[in-house]
Design brief:
By secondary structure, the protein is α+β, with helices and mostly antiparallel strands. Helix content is 39%, strand content 10%. It has five helices and five strands; from the N terminus they run αααββββααβ. The chain has helices spanning 2-12, 26-37, 47-51, 85-95, 106-117; strands spanning 58-59, 62-63, 74-76, 81-83, 128-130. The strands form two sheets. It has a three-stranded mixed beta sheet with strand order 4-3-5. A two-stranded antiparallel sheet has the order 1-2. A hairpin with a 4-residue loop joins strand 3 and strand 4. Helix 2 (26-37) crosses helix 5 (106-117). It is globular and about 40 Å long. The two termini are 22 Å apart.
């Protein structure tokens, strides 16, 4: 699945992100937004605490993003493979000592929809390379 997403990202490179968030997607978008702003884990951190309050800060040799998905999937040098956005969500949740949702779960799909919508109007940049 990640390889197919990478191919789509490559073919879409430069096109504007245009995520539809109304109609049938509205309920999932609201759930994703709720997850994004909810503090969880032993460190009591939510996505917004890093990606809104501290974006562009260096973290693990990379600039922290503003919380968009236009560069995914991402080839991570540390594990020498393509990583999906769900794998990144899982890694973030583990880093804050929270129990992550399962990759492909309704929760991660809703979070993916919300985070992708934050990039509306930006150019698709996938596949990216990160440390």
């Amino acid at each position: 699945m990640t390889a197919m997403t990478a191919l789509l990202g490559l073919e879409s490179r430069g096109m504007p992100v245009a995520v539809v968030i109304d109609g049938p997607a509205a309920e999932a978008w609201e759930l994703g937004k709720e997850i994004y702003y909810t503090r969880v884990g032993q460190l009591d951190i939510g996505c917004a605490n890093c990606h809104e309050d501290n974006y562009d800060t260096m973290i693990r040799a990379d600039h922290l993003s503003q919380g968009q998905t236009n560069g995914f999937p991402s080839y991570r040098l540390k594990n020498a493979k393509l990583n999906s956005i769900h794998a990144r969500f899982k890694g973030c949740m583990k880093n804050i000592r929270a129990t992550p949702f399962a990759e492909g779960s309704d929760e991660f799909r809703a979070l993916e929809l919300y985070v992708a919508s934050r990039g509306n109007g930006l150019s698709v940049e996938g596949t990216s390379v990160r440390n």
